[in-house]
Specification:
The chain is α/β, with parallel strands linked by helices and 687 residues long. It is built from 27 helices and 27 strands. The strands form seven sheets. The chain has a six-stranded mixed beta sheet with strand order 5-4-17-16-15-6, with helices on one face. A six-stranded mixed beta sheet has the order 23-25-24-27-22-26. It has a five-stranded parallel beta sheet with strand order 10-9-8-12-13. Strand 2 and strand 3 form a beta hairpin.
Length: 687
């Protein structure tokens, strides 16, 4: 019996990007485990990925190309060959492109984060075609835009260094669910005497284990940060030297926070006690080093970009950046310096073509109202029927008989049920890839551990074959997987110095060429135009946006929209379930059964005023739609907030609906981002 251990990487949309070891016997993967040699993840996998073999060898895998035989949405298909499927796809795309290639739309997201399967030949294909471009805004674009205005890009402190922090603010994050290896370091810091403060409207698993939980109203985080700044300025808890040397705009910011954001006003906005605001400011100003782990939940509202920008100003005021264990991190993605132009080849866009950009957060409107209309879409690494906001509009779009839809996936997802052609995709164990992370500083290689199951193919190979059928003769479409991986690493960026693809494949992971105690902005050197932390952003000012941090409220909150709140008085949040990852894993029996049924968590006062008891079936609704759940009255959401841990596949939900029935296609202030957590609803006991 032949046995080998293959080095791999977790591909999913999680900051941890774990190193993995896959044991293979006679061509069959029999064990998956964390790579104990990988310093950040240290041999530990989350519960989901620890059972990844159940995904790879699931009896529900799509093993062959399929063609629709019934009504869209019915999920009725017959088996076809790869040649039949690809020939039909190419013929349909050629016909539509001859009319107007802008009527073709890629619809991908982060089902896998590897550069080969997520962002290489696929992007080249759509660029060469002259198709519409997709602005992938569902998760993080508001926060990234806020950080870019302040720090110059997606940069932050090294998450490994939190172990030495004395104060850790876990802001809008539930790392026990979504950032396990940061959480292990935060716990170690707590054992050493650090204070952990969770800022979250919901008493999450993480908040329960922190030293303190502060629960503001959803979307009021910027006001809280500005209140903290008021305390820092009023009580002189500032690093004047750091401010003078390495920031722009302090005097204007000081004037604003003293005049407009007194703790009493901030407490009223956030629904907190005045002493909570004051003490948080004092703790942050007096404790060194202090680190902030910001996450994407707090930026999913109409003012989310400015909220992230505002919080990102805090470390510069106290000089927290001087220490490797101080500062803030939302994402580390821009430290890598991968050559995305070489991977994606935007230069292939035909001369004279200015592709329109479709915002994924408003996909429902795009599929139903765009002009010229979208007539073809290829969906991969994505399940938009389940995960995009305002779900009824998304379904209306995919239900169009004149929309030619191709879905590339390992399973018949909610979206695949609406496809004309379904193509079987490989899982991570079946293809090659190279990964960066947005939660640490290591590059990882993923080696294929087993041959593709059934007739499944990697995304990169499908787009190669489609390019050939479309007659694209550009040499880049013949690039092998190895060549594409090498291109990603060949940017010449100093942080990639010494990272060779062959060595990376053999070792599995390599740290970026940065110091062990990495304090990126200890002496300024921000990536902004001024090379300083821009408390005042001239770039935002040119866009007609207030150049200083300010509180930009949610569109749907009682204080900012009292008329709507009269009708729908409860703020609705839909953060991830522990055993789901977006919609990935939500179809696997182990996790689906463990998490049954879909639940809605309520504060006891909100439940009592509606005659709802624990265990009752309830209906959650607003003008956009409704879904059903079982009430859980457990003291976790603050009063006025209800929480439905998500995202359920519709086909596995008892009423065929999920939380995105009630979320909106509204766009945030920066980055064109989705606003999932900017949502008012009412809840009633179901008949």
């Amino acid at each position: 019996m032949s046995t080998e251990v293959v080095r791999a990487a977790c591909p999913h949309d999680c900051p941890d990007t774990c190193g993995m070891l896959v044991t293979v016997k006679d061509g069959v993967a029999v064990k998956i485990q964390g790579d104990p040699s990988m310093p950040f993840t240290e041999g530990t996998l989350c519960t989901k990925v620890a059972h990844y073999l159940e995904r790879t060898y699931s009896p529900d895998r799509v093993l062959h190309p399929l063609k629709r035989t019934g009504k869209k949405g019915a999920g009725s298909f017959r088996r076809v060959t790869w040649d039949e499927a690809l020939d039909e796809i190419a013929a349909r795309l050629k016909g539509i492109a001859a009319e107007n290639p802008q009527m073709i739309l890629p619809c991908s997201y982060a089902g896998t984060m590897g550069m080969l399967q997520y962002s290489s030949i696929d992007r080249r294909f759509f660029h060469r075609l002259g198709a519409s471009l997709l602005d992938r805004t569902l998760c993080s674009s508001a926060g990234k835009a806020g950080l870019k205005a302040t720090l110059g890009g997606s940069y932050g402190m090294d998450p490994e260094q939190f172990v030495d922090s004395r104060l850790i603010l876990i802001w809008g994050s539930n790392p026990i669910v979504s950032n396990l290896h940061f959480w292990s370091r935060a716990q170690e810091a707590k054992r050493r005497g650090a204070k952990l403060i969770a800022v979250d409207p919901y008493r999450s698993l993480t908040a329960e284990k922190c030293s303190q939980h502060i629960a503001p109203y959803p979307g009021t985080d910027a006001a809280l940060a500005l209140g903290m700044m008021h305390v820092l300025v009023a009580e002189e808890l500032l690093d004047r030297d750091y401010i003078e040397r390495y920031t722009v705009g302090f005097d204007a910011l000081k004037k604003r926070v003293l005049a407009e954001y007194a703790p009493a006003r901030v407490a009223d906005i956030c629904g907190l006690r005045v002493d909570e605001v004051v003490q948080l400011g004092r703790d942050y100003g007096r404790t060194k080093p202090a680190g902030i782990r910001l996450n994407y939940g707090m930026q999913r509202h109409a003012g989310g970009g400015m909220a992230a920008r505002t919080i990102a100003c805090l470390p510069a005021l106290t000089g927290a950046w001087r220490d490797a264990a101080g500062g803030i991190v939302l994402t580390t993605a821009d430290f890598y310096g991968f050559d995305h132009a070489a991977l994606e080849r935007p230069d292939l866009i035909p001369a004279g073509v200015r592709p329109r950009v479709i915002n994924q957060a408003a996909l429902g409107d795009a599929l139903t109202r765009a002009s010229p209309p979208i007539k073809a879409t290829i969906v991969y690494n994505n399940n938009p029927v389940a995960v995009c906001p305002d779900s009824s509009q998304v379904i209306a779009g995919f239900s169009r008989e004149d929309l030619f839809t191709v879905v590339m996936d390992s399973f018949l997802t909610d979206t695949a049920d609406y496809a004309d052609i379904v193509l079987p995709a490989t899982t991570q164990l079946e293809h090659l890839d190279v990964h960066k992370s947005y939660g640490h500083l290591y590059v990882l290689a993923n080696n294929a551990a087993i041959a593709p199951v059934g007739e499944s193919l990697p995304n990169i190979e499908v787009f190669r074959r489609l390019a050939a059928r479309m007659g694209f003769e550009d040499a880049c479409f013949a690039d092998s997987d190895e060549v594409v991986a090498q291109q990603a690493l060949a940017s010449g960026h100093p942080n990639l110095a010494g990272i060779d693809w062959a060595a990376l494949r053999e070792r599995g992971w390599m740290r970026l060429a940065v110091p062990e105690k990495f304090a990126p902005f200890a002496q300024g050197n921000f990536a902004t135009p001024s090379a300083k932390c821009e408390l005042y952003s001239a770039a935002l000012e040119k866009e007609g946006i207030d150049p200083l941090p300010f509180y930009n409220p949610p569109a749907e909150l009682a204080s900012s929209n009292p008329a709507l709140a009269q009708k729908y008085p409860l703020s609705f949040l839909s953060p991830p379930r522990r055993n789901f990852l977006n919609s990935t894993f939500a179809n696997l029996p182990r996790f689906r059964e463990d998490d049954r049924p879909p639940e809605l968590e309520l504060h006891a006062d909100d439940a009592a005023s509606r005659g709802i008891r624990d265990g009752d079936r309830v209906r959650v609704f607003n003008d956009r739609g409704w879904f059903g759940a079982v009430a859980r009255i457990n003291g976790k959401p603050r009063r006025g907030v209800v929480v439905a841990l998500s995202v359920w596949w519709k086909k596995f939900s008892p009423d065929g609906r999920n939380a995105n029935e009630v979320t909106s296609q509204r766009i945030a202030d920066l980055g064109g981002a989705a606003t999932f957590y900017d949502c008012l609803v009412e809840v009633e006991k179901a008949a």
